Amino acid sequence: MIETDHPADGAAGGTTTTDGAAAATTGGRLSLLESVLADTRAQDRAALIGYFPAGFPTVRGGIDCAVAMAEGGCDVIEIGLPHSDPVLDGPVIQTADDIALRGGVRIADVIATVGEVHAATGVPVLCMTYWNPVDRYGVARFAAELAAAGGAGCILPDLPVEEAGAWRKAAAEHGLATVFVVAPSSRDKRLAEITAAGSGFVYAASLMGVTGTRESVGRQAGELVRRTRAVGDLPVCVGLGVSTGAQAAEVASFADGVIVGSAFVQRVLDHADDTPAAVAAVRGLATELAAATRREG
Amino acid sequence: MSDGYFLPDPEGRVPSAGGYFGEFGGIFVPEALRAAVEEVAAEYEKAKGDPAFAAELEDLLVNYTGRPSALTEVPRFAEHAGGARVFLKREDLNHTGSHKINNVLGQALLTRRMGKTRVIAETGAGQHGVATATACALFGLECVIYMGEIDTERQALNVARMRMLGAEVVPVTSGSRTLKDAINEAFRDWVANVDRTHYLFGTVAGPHPFPALVRDFHRVIGVEARRQILERTGRLPDAVAACVGGGSNAIGLFHAFLPDEGVRLVGLEAAGHGVASGKHAATLTAGGPGILHGSRSYVLQDDEGQITEPYSISAGLDYPGIGPEHAYLKDSGRAEYRPVTDDEAMRALRMLARTEGIIAAIESAHALAGALDLGRELGPEATVLVNLSGRGDKDMDTAARYFGLYDEGADK
């Protein structure tokens, strides 16, 4: 395991709970996520949600980058749990996951990253993870530790709603969000089932494909947001392929949130040997994207 | 031919409607692929009830593939198996050289029924890739095959065969650069191109309906073999043996024998350098329950759910997962699964070549090694049926290097 601060340090930083048992039932920050998304909606703007994988390029470096993203203007942070088989990710995040895993990143490091980023910035921090690591680690254990660290919930891109019972129960006990991903191919009936089972927000994939930057945001995104809103009350945030201010502004005009991941990771890959420069580049991109999401439509 | 050749499980025992074999199986796919997987399941259900589908598949299996495949008794080989009688089900004699063509032709017909014009597939040893490229040539479908970079090197002959047949072969450079990573890349392609693309999955793993659908297209192996061995010996075999990577040839052989309680079903896994060495692909022997490539089954993984890199000399068995029905058969006790090392498989490969004049695929040689042990355990009165799932032409470079068959100084 890579040396990091103990997860409990992150939890202690930004929480008022002092009793361990109380933390186990109320530690999750779902309500903070909900209030942040309500606030951005009240301000008539889209939330900016930034994704960054834990342990990349190192555990410390990943924390610094995610903190810089929040300081640069991300309203919500997603911390990726690197996986050996990231089937829904394109080459950029695959590369980052490989680097993180070769560096020895462990689930404790991921949870510590969530905790530290939340403690340092106060923004809601979610974990985005493929399902097998959670299944193997233990659903209840993972939820308890994520909540204790101050996490806001999980985005679960390959967990079908039919298989999500155990997670949803644990998430409800610990005050964690359950964010499901919907796709342009999802039929209306399924969108309704998924939206009803989720919490926090719904992650709408802008196009049919894996993560990575694209020339343009799929035309299907707006239609998917419209269809998802029609069947439920959760905010709908759009991800996949968004990398520039112009794309963020376009998505912000029709969605509750704009999710950006690969573009941040690419900035760090571009500054592989210079962590301060990488952190600065990440901060700069967050600033640019935040300005775009606040632009009048 | 009264049995027919398209033989979906008549009992309807498993899987459940949600695709579960006991606690294994299911549909663990991203939402973007949900509709596509459901479309395959719906089309397959329709095809099962369509006599025209069965007739067309039967015509292909008989007149194109060459079914029924032979059942060959191998007495000189059996002298090394404790004197038990050993029979080989000769799937190596099918067109394209392995059992894979059975499933591929069925799914190619489904592809056409769904109106899709592009087919993608993963391949390890290249046998499924060659079969898929063959069917795509036959049906006029665009074909892209994903193959781990390491496998493109050790199975170079099959890469050439696929390209000869007009397929695009994409070497996959991510992860362990073997079968698992080829499947990851095929899923990524499918998500992006699902409107016009069918993922012609090559084994009895993956999300429902693939474990049941691929099994049904391979059930013909066991149905034929059961009939043939009854005709030849007047009784059922004491054991049937097959190699397992993802498990398609094994499930195809086993399935017809499931109700025959006196017949032992034995799957042989690739133990590489030995299970204790950590360099193996013995998923059922050394793995645990987990989710990989769309279903819950046994997987090779670490304590935090990261899939570990498998190893086998055999590209077709070099996979850290296994079909969910095998996991179910293992846990229920109906089938048993044993590890076979590289060295044991290669010895059996050479023994069959020199005693019977048959060069098996290295995958199938794992089953041969298992049969040698089974024969010795069961004694001279026993009969063992082995699935010879593929022929070994593709493996000659690996075998030549292993046994030192190249002339000194020859170009390798």
From TrEMBL, chain B:
PTM sites of type N6-(pyridoxal phosphate)lysine: K100
InterPro entries: Trp_synth_b_CS, Trp_synth_beta, Trp_synth_beta/beta-like, TrpB-like_PALP, TrpB-like_PALP_sf
Keywords associated with the record: Amino-acid biosynthesis, Aromatic amino acid biosynthesis, Lyase, Pyridoxal phosphate, Tryptophan biosynthesis
Pfam families per UniProt: PALP (PF00291)
This enzyme's EC code(s): 4.2.1.20
Domain spans labelled Tryptophan synthase beta chain-like PALP: 65-390
Reaction it catalyzes: (1S,2R)-1-C-(indol-3-yl)glycerol 3-phosphate + L-serine = D-glyceraldehyde 3-phosphate + L-tryptophan + H2O
GO MF term list: tryptophan synthase activity
Keyword Lipoprotein in annotation: no
Keyword Transferase on entry: no
UniProt cofactor(s): pyridoxal 5'-phosphate
Pathway given in the UniProt record: Amino-acid biosynthesis; L-tryptophan biosynthesis; L-tryptophan from chorismate: step 5/5
Record NCBIfam families: trpB
Sequence similarity: Belongs to the TrpB family.
Quaternary structure annotation from Swiss-Prot or TrEMBL: Tetramer of two alpha and two beta chains.
Role, per record: The beta subunit is responsible for the synthesis of L-tryptophan from indole and L-serine.
Name of the featured protein: Tryptophan synthase beta chain
Organism taxonomic ancestry: Bacteria, Bacillati, Actinomycetota, Actinomycetes, Kitasatosporales
